[in-house]
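Hello again, I could really use a second opinion on something today. I've been puzzling over a protein and I'd love to understand its fold better. I'm sending you its amino acid sequence along with the backbone structure tokens. It would help a lot if you went through both lines with me. I've dropped the whole record in just underneath, so have a look.
***
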Amino acid sequence: MSRAAAERAEEVRVTSGAPTLRGCPWPAARRAARAAARPLPVERVELAAAAGRTLAEPLAALTDLPAFDTSAMDGWAVAGPGPWRLSGRVLAGQSCAPLADGAAVEIATGAQLPPGATGVLRREHGALTELPDGAAQLRGEVAPGQDVRPRGQECGRGEELLPAGLAVTPAVLGLAAAAGHDRLAVHRRPTVELLVLGDELLVAGLPGPGRVRDALGPLLPPWLAGAGAELLGSRHVRDDFGLLRDAIRHSPADLVLTTGGTAAGPVDYLHAALEATGGHPLVDGVAVRPGHPMLLAALPGGRHLVGLPGNPLAAVAGTLTLALPLLHALSGRAAPAVGPAEPLAAALPGHPVDTRLHPVRRTAAGLAPLPHDGPAMLRGLARAEALAVVPPGGLAAGEHAEVLALPSA
């Protein structure tokens, strides 16, 4: 099959795919976003290049940890009961001849324990005296195995340390290095292009008549990176159908993320541009406040588009509902669960029929709702520790609300 024929077949497959979910419940929208993509291919990369990606296979130990019996303290390695005759020193990275009963060597933290040693006497617990022949004698109390990290204490060779699906954090990199790895099997990073729509947006300076600052351009990229994505670029697109259509059609990104244009206003061109590019809506509107006019679509070539509402807090809701679950699926990352229910310090009013996401902080009395929670506001979000998931009808003080963690940068 020619490339052109393959692309036509892909376009037919996309546009005749799964039925569109319109105004679907919030939990179903998150599940749909997660199910819309499969993990990207696996690559084996050096440790430094694996940071921020996702483990594609379990991380197993290539050696025992520690790989040999190690001193846990500065002091003396001793053999048998004391007193001991002192002879020599062992530093980290050095080896030592076996110790006979009654012998001791000075030893540094992390140094390999000499064969025959039965324990380590801490420096502050030992006393040295000079013998008539000029040698030093060491006295103190040492229990068998005291202050020794035995071989394999943390793990044995071949033991699974971490499961696949975990984000590669600095701690994961450190563990992988300690366990003997030079490279890791990780999923390719999903690529994202951010298209910020609207003639009214400013990227610098003070807002003026009819003009507002773009808040989402600075807000979203760190969250996308935290989800394992690689941002190919962020650019503004004027309120023009042709410009938007071409930006979507020619984007090389796995995910095209747009802000604004998801409703039915006079310059809301996203639905028309999506149709013109051969896209197929998978989720068109979600029963959640703020953010209900959000959009998830499949694009030709196996790409996806997530359309976020233009209001900042509504766009945050769309990011957490559709964009991040989709990116986690592409990254091969385990889905972040909604946190366990926590008690409310005050009532949280709800929408009559939709789920509501409300910024909250944790206090001694429970979750405290924050003011400034309107769709166009970010002041409450900036102080929030999480978003409370409020079911239709709301929750009274003392009732429990599920919690959605805010992404880390």
About this structure: The first strand starts at residue 21 and ends at 25.
